[in-house]
Design the sequence.
């Protein structure tokens, strides 16, 4: 089985690595702070991926497809879109140079199988991904690792070795709204 590296590429980058069907190793890599300029973050990302591709080389990279510049208006700033697309390009280009295939993943498609619904709001999806990761015994420590769990599961699914996720498990991670709040709404 190939060694997979699933990446939620962002300033704080979530990673899940391992063979399909295994419990992934989860990590967080920080390329900077929101106040750092894009070039500083890009340089840190380039240094990291260069070392990762030589020291702990994956056979495949599965990475969240970058945001369209025209989409998600109001939810993601133009500066964030530039940063996210730049990090995607740096990681993908370095992998291509080293002969490591990169599989772009629409996060909505991965979440549909992992969470049972692909069109959730960002905050809800991340919270549910953390819950599903814990339910699978993977224990993500933050939202970025939780998204990487979702991508790793999706990559494992593509190899026919994903941990089974049932509708009951997907229902288990849905936050129950207290009855009083529903009446007040």
Sequence:
């Amino acid at each position: 089985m190939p060694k997979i590296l699933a990446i939620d590429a962002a300033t704080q980058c979530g990673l899940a690595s391992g063979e399909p069907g295994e419990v992934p190793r989860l990590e967080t890599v920080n390329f900077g702070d929101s106040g750092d300029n894009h070039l500083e973050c890009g340089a840190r990302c380039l240094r990291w991926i260069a070392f990762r591709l030589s020291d702990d080389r994956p056979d495949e990279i599965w990475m969240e497809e970058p945001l369209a510049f025209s989409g998600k208006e109001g939810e993601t700033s133009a500066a964030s879109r530039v940063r996210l697309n730049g990090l995607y390009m740096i990681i993908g280009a370095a992998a291509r140079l080293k002969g490591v295939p990169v599989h772009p993943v629409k996060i909505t498609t991965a979440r549909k199988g992992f969470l049972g619904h692909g069109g959730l709001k960002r905050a809800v999806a991340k919270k549910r991904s953390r819950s599903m990761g814990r339910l699978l015994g993977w224990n993500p420590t933050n939202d970025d690792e939780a998204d990487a769990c979702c991508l790793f599961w999706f990559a494992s699914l593509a190899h026919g070795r994903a941990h089974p996720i049932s509708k009951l498990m997907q229902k288990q991670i849905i936050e129950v709204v207290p009855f009083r709040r529903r009446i007040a709404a």
User: Anything to note?
Assistant: Residues 4-184 form a domain with the Nucleotidyltransferase; domain 5 fold (CATH 3.30.420.10). The longest helix spans residues 78-97.
